Amino acid sequence: MKTISRSRVAAVGALATGALFLAGCGAANEGGSSSGGAAESSVSGTISGAGASSQQAAMQAWIAGFTGANSGATVNYDPVGSGGGRTQFVQGGVAFAGSDAYLKDQQLADAKTRCGGNVIEVPNYVSPIAVVYNLQGVSNLNLSPAAVAGIFAGTITTWNDPAIAADNPGVALPATAITPVHRSDESGTTQNFTEYLKAAAPDAWSYDAKGEWPIQGGEAAQGTSGVIGAVQGGQGTIGYADASQAGQLGKANIKVGADYVGPTPEAAAKILEESERVAGQGDTSFAYKLNRTTDSAGTYPVVLVSYLLACPQYPDAAQADLTKAFLSYVISPEGQQAAAQAAGSAPLSDTLRSQITPVVDGIKAAG
Prior knowledge:
By secondary structure, the chain is α/β, with parallel strands linked by helices.
């Protein structure tokens, strides 16, 4: 398996696709302060992470910025998907993970066992999930929650269906068959998308919210890039993917209250203002139960909040200090701006940063 080292990350960081592959953990460390971001850190060694492909472009920017300021450090990230990242983290195969869904049930219990207590879950990437489409002659598309749910449930099968026409008065919608595209792998993007469908359109979507696509039919594709490729390669296709990866595809406006809202970073960021932390996760967890049914003007509710998963303590100081320094850079204003420029994500608010920074600063060696 190929590893992209620090010296090559800067070149790779400009790309929105491709993969940084997994390498082993552990190395020497020179110590240093972590809370001020990469510029105030002086660490070395190697750590590896794995997880959500949705934050891949942002992760490349974070790695480039962090290792650019810490010439002796190497950070590797395998965008295997949220499910794979959580599994590798729980099993101790990686120092940190990126996940588009917070830990639950047995996986949460197993992660606490791996970490020897609580688990760190901090938001690091807030982004809209775009409902992307490829339909000749239609450059602007409005969809109600019920219409989105009907399309992906397979009950709305042509683009000129009355339910779609009602959202788009005056638009010449073709009779083209709809081909919905979904993820074939377990995915936090799927988890968040189905959570939205279940909450916002329960009459049209009767399936559970889960990371694996719950029904038969449509077209399946691996990873975010696979969904984008399948939608691009078809006609009358529609899918769901992190908005940063949408490229030239159409992005539907979703009905919120009386208005239709597009998947902008600003509209996505507003969802956290109306959402509450999940109870029972532990003091070091900042997982949120998102308010998918908001009517608040200018809020886009089809959103994923991606988390960094880490342990409050690690077996040795080298791994602990490097993990703390990298996570500190990711959540810093500098790191969040780098992600916004590279991936179109919404930077964390100063209020949220002030709450999660002490958790990251508390990472230490066991003993």
